[in-house]
Specification:
- A hairpin with a 2-residue loop joins strand 1 and strand 2.
- By secondary structure, the protein is mainly α.
- The longest helix has 31 residues.
- 72% of the residues lie in helices and 12% in strands.
């Protein structure tokens, strides 16, 4: 970690460099009660876990409404349907893709 003026550069070997205003660095320390790197990691992983949970709730609602993504896809391909079904299929598939990425982030962070 290198302090530069009113901001801090976080240096990670071959990963990323982040510049944050000093007031945000202080906020991380206050919120998490630990050093900046661990605090940011905690905040980000908590947000990833929350997003995954929110996505899983949305997925359960789609499952309740349509049964399965395959069933909805089949309905769209074989029979008349409304714009809502197409939009929800797209949203459902997007949630599945995002959930895979979020799970991977959490798994890699735990390793």
């Amino acid at each position: 970690m290198v302090e530069v003026g009113a901001s801090i550069l976080l240096e990670y070997s071959c990963l990323a460099v982040v510049t944050l205003p000093k007031n945000l660095i202080d906020a991380v320390r206050t919120l998490e009660g630990r050093n900046v790197e661990e605090g940011l990691r905690s905040i980000i992983l908590n947000r990833v876990a929350l997003r995954l949970h929110e996505n899983q709730l949305k997925t359960k609602e789609f499952t309740r409404r349509y049964g399965s993504i395959q069933r909805l896809r089949g309905k769209i391909l074989r029979s008349p349907h409304g714009w809502r079904e197409e939009t929800e299929l797209f949203d459902w598939e997007s949630l599945r893709t995002e959930n895979k990425r979020l799970k991977k982030i959490l798994a890699e962070a735990a390793a």
